[in-house]
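Lab meeting, item 3. Inverse folding demo.
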């Protein structure tokens, strides 16, 4: 006997589904409402996050436009009152501002040292003829009428042209008289004359001091000349003839004088001969020495040759 297949399983009847659907549709509706509400809430949140920036931007722009309008109105009012454009001075102000650092730097920098003073031109031998003319007109002639201050100014001018005054006529006597009178005058004149004789002039200045010391003994001029000639460095600027004459005059012992006799023959002039003759009167044995006779002869020949 053959078994029959089991009957097919059948689902619940359609009526059952209809009844269930009627019972669950409120729940589906409630879920849909909840989902819709959540989406709406999300939209609100996003919208509320971006809205403030849009709102805050507009108020900031509005005052800026108002300020620009006020500035424009103020500038127009200024132009109406002054008749000038206030903005015209802006470039100058900016230029001043740009130049300010440079100006500050220049004022803060130490001032440049002043240039050194020009040195006085040294006494030169290039114009002895001009010096001779100045010496004649401005030294010799004023001395003839006792204008010693004018003569001193003339001597300064002549020395500036030729410190040795080599071409000047009557040089030695004119200088002698000017020094004798000048050393007896006021301190300023004495200082000017001393500077000329010891600084500005050549050997002739030292030579004239020796003549004043020898020929005007006891005077103010002789005392001043004696004081100046004690400086060995000053005497070294004089001529060899002056130095041997000075050494003979200053020597006191006969042995010291005798040691100087030979130099009279090599360097001496009329001044050394004068001093040598004085030495012989005090030290007779020197006059008997052949060295003395030879030195005196040589000096006389030299003086005669001039």
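The presenter then showed the designed sequence:
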């Amino acid at each position: 006997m053959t078994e029959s297949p089991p009957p097919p399983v059948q689902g619940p009847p359609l009526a059952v589904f209809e009844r269930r659907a009627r019972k669950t549709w409120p729940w589906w509706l409630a879920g849909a409402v909840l989902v819709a509400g959540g989406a709406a809430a999300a939209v609100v949140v996003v919208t509320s996050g971006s809205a403030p920036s849009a709102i805050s931007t507009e108020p900031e722009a509005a005052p800026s436009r108002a300020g620009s309008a006020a500035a424009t109105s103020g500038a127009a009012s200024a132009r109406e009152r002054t008749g000038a454009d206030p903005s015209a001075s802006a470039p100058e102000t900016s230029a001043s501002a740009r130049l300010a650092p440079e100006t500050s730097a220049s004022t803060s920098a130490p001032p440049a040292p002043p240039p050194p003073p020009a040195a006085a031109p040294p006494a030169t031998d290039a114009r002895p003829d001009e010096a001779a003319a100045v010496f004649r007109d401005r030294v010799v002639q004023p001395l003839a009428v006792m204008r010693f201050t004018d003569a001193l100014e003339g001597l300064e001018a002549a020395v500036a042209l030729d410190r040795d005054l080599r071409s000047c006529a009557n040089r030695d006597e004119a200088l002698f008289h000017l020094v004798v009178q000048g050393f007896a005058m006021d301190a300023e004149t004495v200082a000017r004359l001393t500077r000329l004789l010891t600084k500005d002039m050549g050997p002739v200045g030292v030579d004239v001091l020796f003549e004043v010391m020898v020929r005007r003994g006891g005077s103010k001029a002789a005392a001043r000349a004696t004081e100046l000639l004690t400086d060995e460095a000053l005497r070294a600027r004089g001529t060899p003839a002056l130095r041997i004459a000075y050494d003979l005059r200053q020597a006191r012992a006969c042995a010291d004088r005798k040691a100087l006799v030979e130099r009279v023959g090599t360097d001496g002039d009329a001044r050394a001969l004068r001093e040598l003759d004085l030495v012989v009167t005090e030290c007779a044995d020197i006059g008997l020495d052949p060295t003395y006779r030879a030195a005196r002869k040589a000096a006389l020949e030299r003086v005669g040759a001039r």
